[in-house]
Design a protein that fits this description.
three-stranded antiparallel sheet; hydrolase activity, acting on ester bonds; 11 strands; Lipase; GDSL; SGNH_hydro_sf; alpha/beta; globular; single chain
Length: about 500
């Protein structure tokens, strides 16, 4: 019997949420596998990143630590103690992943079925291996006392994902060769998901500047590249190379997902000084400036040039480049007989701020029912629509307007990666496509309820989210947490 599912991708496939990959059972491939005959995930092999809350850092866990020690707000005189508490946590995380158990072989098998790796770009699919990453780690690793997060996390994650047993027989396996070996040794692959490309453009909204790819980047390894926005013709050349290898895996069904518009998640916050609501938007939904999400509107508006930012025209340019990537993906799928899951379109439908609050995405009724049965009726509007959106998570429980009390809920605390419920929506879109083409789907009765219960930010959000300006100010001005996004896109 063929393997029901193999997934290839980046952090979105790996299962990163709120700054780290930890529980790979809530990654969308695992959620799909539960519906393809493996409800308890006994057969679907996936890496283990549970140590110390995940790699590189679990921001949700950090916020809960601060709540336990300092309540819902850190007062000025408590900052030194808070810094010490954070430093102790960072020391443990760094030690685990750089020198401790996180560097050793894991017991999750020799070949995984979830082959997603945080930080991967399109061209890393057939070039990054355990052996390459081991060499990079030996060459570039250093002990940074001022920025104590696990360095070169992408390379550490690659080793633990592509060669978890640290077996020399698998040290040259890339995502491509690992998937091909799964197919060869496990009677083929029924469904293959391929979703790479977000990191070919994500760096633009993290660094807030555009650095175009050069022709040599097509053949460069990850650590040799410095670009953060790939020329569409360069993207197409790599895609054309890779499609031959996807075909060679010889899966029964191949699903390609489109790349989301990276200007929608709150990792970069749109601001038009002096304007709010829909008045701040252009006719096509863009703001005058885009800056870091921990910079408040009134602070930025006093002197925009004081802060790093993109202008609206640059944000539109980035999205137009992504549109060209997605057209290339659709062209390849059409030519090869692959199936497209248009996740870019779905995120566009969910884009709360860009749409002036007029979300058009049709939430599954099963999710709405699960919110109700798990004690979350306050996350359902009077109209029946879930109060879940793409804004940064914020609690204002005393607001007289129910719909303002709980903002966000689909994007985690790093401002880009999905929450468990959002991973459920992603899985649901793949399942709808699979069902449409005739794949047998046996969704467990408690599927959505399990997802809702697994979402700590939804079930029991940290109390310091009520004082978001204070909390973000501490995290992004007194700790190295702001480096996480660079780490997750493979540049640190």
């Amino acid at each position: 019997m063929a393997v029901p599912l193999v997934a290839i991708g980046d952090s979105l496939t790996h299962g990163v949420t709120s700054g780290g990959v930890c529980r790979t059972d809530i990654a969308y491939p695992a959620l799909i596998a539960r519906c393809l005959g493996d409800p308890d995930l006994k057969q679907f092999k996936r890496p283990d990143f549970t140590g110390e809350g995940g790699l590189p850092l679990n921001i949700e866990q950090l916020l809960r630590l601060l709540v336990d020690k300092f309540g819902n707000k850190i007062d000025f005189f408590e900052i030194p103690r808070a810094l010490l508490a954070v430093q102790n946590k960072l020391d443990r995380v760094e030690d685990f992943w750089e020198r401790g158990e996180g560097t050793k072989a894991s017991d999750t098998g020799t070949l995984h079925h979830n082959l997603g790796v945080l930080g991967f770009q399109l061209g890393d699919f057939d070039t990054l291996t355990d052996a390459v990453c081991r060499r990079v780690l030996q060459k570039k690793q250093r002990n940074n006392l001022l920025q104590q997060l696990p360095e070169l996390a992408m390379y550490r994650a690659t080793r633990r994902t592509l060669n978890p047993s640290l077996d020399r027989n698998f040290e040259w396996y890339s995502q491509f060769t690992a998937a091909k070996e799964v197919a060869r040794t496990q009677n083929g692959i029924e469904n293959l998901i391929f979703w790479l490309g977000a990191n070919n453009c994500l760096g633009t909204v993290i660094s807030l500047k555009i650095n175009w790819s050069k022709p040599q980047d097509i053949d460069n390894l990850a650590y040799e590249r410095s670009c953060n926005l790939w020329q569409p013709e360069h993207f197409r050349k790599i895609l054309d190379r890779i499609v031959l290898q996807i075909r060679a895996i010889n899966a029964t069904n191949v699903f390609l997902a489109t790349i989301p518009h990276v200007t929608i998640p709150p990792v970069s916050r749109g601001i038009t000084p002096g304007r709010t609501g829909t008045d701040a938007l252009t006719a096509d939904g863009y703001y005058e400036f885009y800056t870091h999400f921990w910079i408040w509107d009134d602070e930025f508006s006093k002197n925009p040039e004081q802060y790093p930012h993109l202008v609206g025209a640059e944000a539109k340019l980035i999205d137009s480049v992504i549109d060209q990537y997605n057209q290339a993906i659709k062209d390849v799928a059409d030519r090869e007989g692959f199936h497209v899951v248009d996740l870019c379109e779905k995120l566009d439908q969910l884009a709360f701020r860009r749409r002036g609050g007029q979300v058009t995405y049709p939430f599954p009724q099963e999710l709405i029912d699960a919110l109700q049965t798990n004690g979350l009726p306050h996350r359902i509007a009077a109209s029946g629509r879930p109060l879940l959106d793409t804004r940064y998570i914020r609690l204002t429980p005393n607001d007289n307007n129910q719909e303002n009390r709980y903002r966000g809920g689909l994007i985690g605390l790093d401002g880009f990666h999905p929450t468990p419920v959002c991973y459920g929506l992603i899985a649901d879109e793949f399942l709808l496509k699979m069902n449409y083409i005739g794949v047998t789907i046996n969704r467990p009765q408690n599927w959505w309820s399990d997802i809702v219960r697994s979402d700590g930010l939804l079930m029991e959000p940290p109390e310091n989210l009520e004082h978001l300006e204070n909390t973000l100010g501490f995290l992004y001005h007194h700790t190295p947490v702001k480096k996480i996004l660079d780490i997750l896109r493979g540049t640190s």
